[in-house]
Amino acid sequence: MAYIEKHHSESGCILCEVLDQSDSPDNLIVWRGSRVYVILNRFPYTSGHLMIVPYDHLPSLHELDPETRSEIIELADLAVCVLQEAYHPQGFNLGINLGEAAGAGITEHVHLHVVPRWMGDTNFMSTLGGTRVLPESLADTYQRIRQAWLRQST
Predict the structure, then answer these.
(1) Which of 34, 51, 53, 86 fits as disulfide partner to 148, beta carbons 3.0 to 4.6 Å?
(2) How far is 63 from 22, CA to CA, in rounded Å?
(3) Catalytic one among 49, 109, 111, 113?
(4) Active-site annotation holds for 8
(5) Bridge partners (DSSP) listed for residue 30
(6) DSSP labels for 19-50?
(7) What's the total number of domains in the chain?
(8) What CA–CA distance (Å, rounded) separates 9 from 13?
(9) pLDDT at 6
């Protein structure tokens, strides 16, 4: 949360800020569609935690045009296929948190989370220590997902 608050107050929306950068492990954008893009969550719940983000800086789904909402769902479906190939999870959480009370860390720019899940992926570290342990770096995750995305999208 400190990262989000720091970057939000200094430079505006972090989900808009990354758009001017080249896709790489630095900005974590793994795919750009016509109306939305797919980015790794910088503070993932599990390895492979993706977010699907519209280019339009709007706080809610109903403010997006139907084509953008449709592309979000189509890319969510493709993201599940990509993550299935790359990580072989046992399940997925897909969700949109609208508003701070719903858990949105970035309230002004709607986005959909795609989180691969495994049985028992919540362990004592996250439950008792409030800390998540991931088996690979974000740069490695980026490369793995980017390659799988290119294979799945052709």
Answers:
(1) 86
(2) 28
(3) 111
(4) no
(5) none
(6) GGSPSSTTT-EEEE-SSEEEEE-SS-SSTT-E
(7) 1
(8) 8
(9) 44
What are 151's two structure tokens?
Answer: 């294979």
Q: Which residues span the domain enclosing 65?
A: 2-152
Confidence at 10, pLDDT banded by 50, 70, 90: low
CATH number of the domain residue 111 falls in: 3.30.428.10
* pLDDT for 136: 85
pLDDT in tens, 77-109: 999 999 999 999 999 999 999 888 888 888 899
Q: What is the pLDDT of residues 35-88, one digit of tens each?
A: 999 999 998 888 999 999 999 999 999 999 999 999 999 999 999 999 999 999
Which of 93, 125, 84, 127 has the alpha carbon at shortest distance from 112?
Answer: 93
Cβ(33)–Cβ(54) below 8 Å: no
